Amino acid sequence: MLFVSKEEITTQLKGVVGQNNGSVTLENADKLRDQLIDTLVENSVLSKSNDVKGFARYIIKSAALELGIVPASIQGLYEAMGRGEYHGFTVPALNTRGMTYEFCRAIFRSAHKIDCGAFIFEIAKSEISYTFQPPHEVAPVILAAAIKEGHKGPVFIQGDHFQVNAKAYGQDPKKEIEGLKDLIRQGVGAGFYNIDIDTSTLVDLSKPNVVEEQRLNFEVGVDLTNYVRELEPEGITVSVGGEIGEVGKENSNEEELRAYLDNFNALMKKTGNAKGISKISIQTGTSHGGVPMPDGSVADVELDFATLENLSRISRKDYGLAGAVQHGASTLPLNLFHKFPELETAEIHLATDFQNMIYDSEHFPKDMKEDLYKHLRTKFAAEKSADMTDEQFIYKTRKKGFGEFKAQFWGLPEEVKAGIGKELEAKFDFIFEKLNVKNTREAVDKTVELVPVQPNLDAEIAACE
């Protein structure tokens, strides 16, 4: 049900959510969870009215805080990991590309079964673009899922690969950085208190030595990290991640790690900012989405576990970071996932396999898939190279279907959503087990400070424009 005015929502809220002089009070949590939250979240995404969208998001965020659901930074846990107080698990960071509400609900259900507190919801800069999910939209959807599934406590929302475009930077550095700062501002304003800054695209291997190769990486990284610090709400230290090797390129090494971190930390100290990054992303042989073969299957990957283990150890022991971050891992063989916690990998990013599960699910309507693929073949025909099979093209392009068919995904029958949600939940059960995040809720509760940031109705409406 889509509303056309705030007054319609207010009518639905009677007896469930009260409003008094700009404050929100929760009167009936059960009624909110049963159905009203589904209506609110749908309007927060699909309403044609910015007033309705913003109001729905404001109510969701306010109700979440009333229920003890708080957007938070994982900084405290990562600092404790860097001190060696917690180890033996790898935090999963799960990308919310499509069917975001059902996707996040399934994650909460899996986490609750095993008392897991260490898990992150994230969306990358590129995903924000092609799935049509700006930060101020996706954050309330995640919080609505938390409300629906009875969650309580911190919710870690992360901006993944907030990345500098090297070509655009080469043409106009100021414009490219200002664009990225605008995205960071949107993210922090929406409750993204965890941000991975990716300036590794600026690494130049043609330079005479490793410091010069990494120079733009750490200099621009410091500038953007300081900008994050300027935006932090009072009492919150945003967890910032850095990166030394662009995913899909050359594998990282110790010399690069030290050149980046030594110079990054020195520059941060000069600026008077004590808080640098909490983790470091490295390249170990993976690529985002995997490499599709002519038949649409994904090529096997030889992941450099020795590099992952060594650089994670150095980043913890010598620099006090939580450890190394593994990107592009969701299409790796399932029998490898147990190795990440064994090697003390701090965090692992997972995305494409969940997308594949949605599209390939037996519950996914065949007619919608056919229409969606037909649309992609037409609209993005220019992206199909001469040597690319149709299967390869669809595999690489169907991620854009989440944005192109956004309303259709939200309008899927409830039994379809439930069926796909159960399949995703089973996968999350498996991943959480292999990453050994069972019973991490206690560690999170001990190390993560909850700082409620009250939403502002005018700001939520303005963000819809």
Task: Report on this structure.
- The model is unreliable at 288-293 (pLDDT under 50).
- The chain is globular.
- The protein folds into two domains: 6-67, no CATH class; 72-358 and 412-446, TIM Barrel, CATH 3.20.20.
- The chain has 465 residues and is an alpha/beta fold.
- Helix 10 crosses helix 11 (254-270).
- Helix content is 51%, strand content 12%.
- The protein is built from 21 helices and eleven strands.
- The two termini are 22 Å apart.
- Strand 10 (324-326), helix 13 and strand 11 form a beta-alpha-beta unit.
- The strands form two sheets. Strands 4-5-6-7-8-9-10-11 form an eight-stranded parallel barrel, surrounded by five helices. Strands 1-2 form a two-stranded antiparallel sheet.
